[in-house]
Amino acid sequence: MMKKMKKSYVSYLLIATLLISSLLSFVGCDGINISFDTPTTPPAQSPATNSPTVPTQGTETSAPAETTEALSSETTGVSPEKPSDSTVPGKTTVSDVLAGELGKYEVTGSVVGYNAQSFLLADSTGMILVYKGSTWIPDVRAGYTVTVSGDTTVYGGAKQFGTSATYEIKNTDISGHKNPEPVVLSASQLDAYGTAEVVTPLFVKVTGKLQVSGNYYNILIDGATIIGSISYPIEEFKAFLALLDGQTVDVTGYVTNSTGGGQFLSILTAMVSIAGSETPSTPSTPPTPSAQTISNIIASELGMYETSGCVVGVNAQSFLISDGTGSMLVYKGNTWTPDVRVGDVVSVSGDTTIYGGAKQFGTSCTYKVTGNESFTQPTPKLLSATDVNAYATNSSIVPEYVTVVGVISASGNYYNLAIDSAVLTGSVSYPTDEQKATLAMLEGKLISVTGYVTGVTGGGKFLNILATNMTLYN
């Protein structure tokens, strides 16, 4: 009798369990999870104490350190540590972020420097790197006020915001920005970074031999085993650094981390100059721009300028402006979507660089359409083969409105113009989709191309033309 009752009891219990399970399923509950929310702002913790000794003035000298391409350094910003799962960032100061556990934060500060893949943010309490990666297009300047929100991570001994962090530019007034006096690092102070567990950003000056190897820009410093590394220079800055390869230079900028197992000290560089020179050369973090006419900019040294002109030509990656004193290309790159047209009046501000023998504004420049005016192209100069050949030895090219005649042929993304008896080949530079369609119809035919000469590339093989008109030649 007892066995029968026990069996019935178990059956009823099983049925009840199934009914409860079905009810939970009916209302959409797969289960019950219990969790505890962590505080929005992580509790502070004491930072490690074995950071480099606070540097003092002075340098040490001995035999220069040796390096090879295999020792070159390029940081990746990838962190070995997993960020917090918290979803609500805590508004705080930079020092709180640096002292706290890894997690989500929101902080507001001023940009004190940037390179091609990151920028350094500072408030009155400290500095922290915001790493954005190789696909980022720099849109901040030193002096901008920016709010950053997202996960923190650790790389190269330094805490930073990673690629998933977002930021919002709050103020673009750069007039108040000024770098502090740099700390001149001795060889022993530099080497201390190689074993430091915690690296704190510091504005420094180092002197050494610049070694360019592929995408790496290393500084070999007398007496130091650690090698300085100019981290992620922007494209325009790379061209300048290539000219200084092998020379002894002064490098000023912010130490951001130590990479390669303590072999390299990454420096977000503000200035590079020939060692001992009182006049700094091409800054990577530009000062307040100097307003100039285009002719003055072309005649001046590389630097940061501001100018205004009328758009006279546009292709898929750049546009040309003219102010009556001269013409200058504004190159924006393959991620740019053309948003200007011929006749627009545009103000441009940014670094100048040289490409193909011609001075231009580079991808980091900013611009704004301020108006529109009626514009008529001038009468083009018909180039003979002799005229074309003269560009091959011209080391300082100024845009000129011309017409060239030759047989057009497409080779991948290149549209070449074979000009009879000319040593240079014409090249329709970065045609728009509409221009590509026209060129496809003219393939293999003798055509005339009218437009602006913008440079000579390919080691003196191609005459680049920003085309405004292409027609079958009669």
Structural notes for this entry:
With 474 residues, the chain is mainly β. Helices cover 14% and strands 39% of the residues. It contains seven helices and 26 strands. The protein has helices spanning 2-26, 94-99, 187-192, 235-243, 294-299, 385-390, 433-442, and strands at residues 90-91, 104-114, 118-123, 126-131, 145-155, 158-161, 166-171, 183-184, 202-213, 216-220, 227-230, 248-259, 264-274, 290-291, 304-314, 318-322, 327-331, 344-355, 358-361, 366-372, 381-382, 400-411, 414-418, 425-428, 446-457, 462-472. It has a five-stranded mixed β-barrel. Strands 9-10-11-13-12 form a five-stranded mixed barrel. Strand 21, helix 6 (385-390) and strand 22 (400-411) form a beta-alpha-beta unit. It is elongated, with a radius of gyration of 30 Å. The termini are far apart.
Q: Tags for this entry?
A:
elongated; mainly beta; 4 domains; disordered N terminus; OB fold (Dihydrolipoamide Acetyltransferase, E2P)
